[in-house]
Fold:
Amino acid sequence: MTTDQATEGQLFDDWPDRYDTWFTTPIGKLVKAYEAELLIELLAPQPDELILDVGCGSGVFTALVGAVRPALVGLDLSLPMLRRAEAKAVGYRFAALVGTMTRLPFADQSFDRVYSMTALEFVADARSAIGEMNRVTRPGGTVVVTTLNSLSPWAVRRKEKAAAGHSLFANMTFRSPQEMSRLASSPGTVKTAIHFLKDTDPGQAAVLEEQGRLEQKNTGALVALCWQKQ
Amino acid sequence: MINKELLDILACPQCKGPVKLQADESGLVCEPCGLLYEIIDDIPVMLIDKAKRLGGHERPA
Structure:
């Protein structure tokens, strides 16, 4: 682990409350719902499969995938975040581990499916992280990696916040759908979601989301890359 | 408690080789690397920089 990553772990240790609270706001709830929909569509988790959540954070999406009844492993740099994830996963088959995305602590071909929701933006060496996710997936298994889209208006705002001293956003690398596509270990699918803004009227957000989906816009705030391990 | 299913797939993040659970379940050891990964509140900390170096395996930084 590099010094940068150690700092990163401490950075997230201060965030569980603020991160979870955002997903309870009206627009945050919609963001979570649309992100979850895209994750489930691409990952297609099945009961009793062994699934890895890389950068599981406070377990927002861990709990969602867990509802399908797989055996889930959640990996994150932050111990306080993992304790949150454990609390959300009560009643599920869930194991938490502290680890870093660029050096996953698993044997080759361990998992049926591997996913990572908005964690790659905190990793400078995306190729290593994606290579590691591919390594620990069994042949024929699915990998889904989502991150923040550099082409989205959300990225512009976050870069402005970073410039103004926002500690979390200052550590982020935004990537475009094209960049994500080039990172795939095997030819993959790239989609974006969240075609509305943080200050969009929640009643209008569903309309904008549907429109963005139909037009297959590449400017959604979330970019998702999915491939099958060969 | 660390379950067997997890133990079967856990590997040293440095060499990717298997790790052994200590008898008191306080940590996971990678013998070839000479590293001990602590388990805190049932959560293994699988970070090379946080691992303890075991005797006889000291390496220059």
Residues 4-53 of chain B form a domain with the N-terminal domain of TfIIb fold (CATH 2.20.25.10). The radius of gyration of chain B is 11 Å. Strands of chain B lie at 20-21, 27-30, 35-40, 43-44, 52-53. Chain B has one domain: 4-53.
